[in-house]
Design a protein that fits this description.
Shape: globular
Oligomer: single chain
Largest sheet: none
Distance between the termini: 29 Å
Number of helices: 4
Number of strands: 0
Strand content: under 5%
Helix content: 55-70%
Structural class: mainly alpha
Number of domains: 1
Length: 93
């Protein structure tokens, strides 16, 4: 499994966890960090192909509502290198 694939899977897991926890700020931070590190086309594909089938209608509605409000605060890269392991994904916000 490539490093990029591992990062995408980590991002998917964190995005789903934030949605299930009803935490739009964390979701937006992971989303923006994923776009910074993986690129917009990769994150768009991840959202459309992998995340969409996993979401309930309630999750989809919350996602649309939270994204329409816009991200607040300063967002740092989601996958900031720490100890040489980019897959750890610890955020600093």
């Amino acid at each position: 499994m490539t490093q990029e694939t591992r990062m995408a899977l980590l991002l998917l897991g964190q995005l789903l966890a934030a949605l299930r926890a009803n935490d739009p700020d964390t979701f937006k931070k992971w989303l923006v960090g994923g776009i910074q590190d993986l690129g917009k086309p990769a994150v768009t594909e991840l959202m459309a192909d992998w995340m969409n089938p996993l979401l309930t209608q309630k999750d989809k509605d919350r996602l649309v509502a939270s994204l329409s409000k816009g991200a607040r605060g300063k967002v740092h890269s989601t996958f900031t290198a720490r100890g040489g392991n980019r897959g750890r994904g610890d955020m600093v916000c």
